[in-house]
Amino acid sequence: MAPRGSEWINHLWRLRPSPVVDLYRSRCQGYVLAVQMRICTKFKPDGRTIPPDVPHYSRYPMSFLMKLDLAKAAMLLQHRDERV
């Protein structure tokens, strides 16, 4: 049975793995891209301050979620083209 309504979005997300992985900058070698934003800062330890150098969000910002959605769509389209 084909997914209906918003179920198709969940179906698409299960087709391919997510492009998101947790990454600790201290474990990277060589050139590392600059930080663009800090997310989920509501979980920061008590007493720590967040540097004002880049935007920070207590949750996931909509612009970040849209970038993930577009990356996922691009991967799905690329995967479909490879099978043809």
Number of domains: 1
Distance between the ends: 23 Å
Q: Please indicate the percent range of residues in DSSP E strands (runs of 2 or more).
A: under 5%
SSE string, helices as H and strands as E: HH
Please give the number of β-strands: 0
Percent of residues in helices comes to: 25-40%
Count of helical stretches: 2
* Low-confidence region ranges: none
Structural class: mainly alpha
Overall shape: it is: extended
Task: Specify the biggest β-sheet.
Answer: none
Overall pLDDT metric = 76
Radius of gyration: 17 Å
Q: Could you characterize what this model shows?
A:
By secondary structure, the protein is mainly α. The protein has one domain (7-83). The chain contains two helices and no strands. It has helices at 7-15, 62-83. The protein is extended and about 50 Å long. The mean pLDDT is 76.
Defining key terms:
single chain; mainly alpha
Brief write-up:
This protein has 84 residues and is an all-alpha fold. It has two helices and no strands.
Q: Which helices and strands occur, and which strands form pairs?
A:
Blueprint: H1 7-15, H2 62-83
